[in-house]
Q: What sequence folds into this?
């Protein structure tokens, strides 16, 4: 499956962080922004999303709770959880919920973009025939 412009849903309650991530990933992705986990769930139900970035600590639903619910109806959707409070318990819980990856905050641009590209390549074979990817 060749994706021309995949959709990346960035979910974080920090508007500045969402906008920073949008700037990192556009124009290679169509970015969609959500301010919390419930909003992310609504978007995933209504729109085509190819990858989901989730902050762990948000109002209404945590990133982990959102991930668990998304996987109930979109099991193949790669989800990357990002947390300032990453510990082994959270990492284990995220793996059990089938997170593609769990990354610590603060996160380097290189680590985040390489993880996103790896997820897109593994799930969709995206970038495999693009030497610039």
A:
């Amino acid at each position: 499956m060749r994706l021309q412009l995949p959709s990346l849903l960035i979910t974080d309650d920090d508007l500045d962080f969402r906008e920073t991530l949008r700037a990192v990933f556009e124009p290679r992705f169509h970015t969609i922004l959500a301010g919390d986990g419930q909003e992310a769930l609504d978007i995933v139900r209504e729109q085509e999303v190819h990858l989901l970035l989730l902050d762990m600590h948000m109002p209404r639903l945590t990133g982990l709770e959102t991930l668990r619910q998304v996987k109930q109806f979109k099991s193949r959707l790669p989800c990357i959880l990002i947390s300032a409070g990453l510990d082994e318990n959270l990492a284990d819980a995220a793996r059990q919920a089938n997170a593609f990856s769990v990354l610590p905050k603060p996160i380097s641009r290189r680590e985040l973009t390489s993880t996103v590209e790896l997820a897109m390549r593994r799930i969709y074979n995206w970038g495999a025939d693009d030497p610039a990817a």
The helical segments are 15-25, 37-46, 63-73, 88-96, 109-124. The longest helix spans residues 109-124. The mean pLDDT is 92.
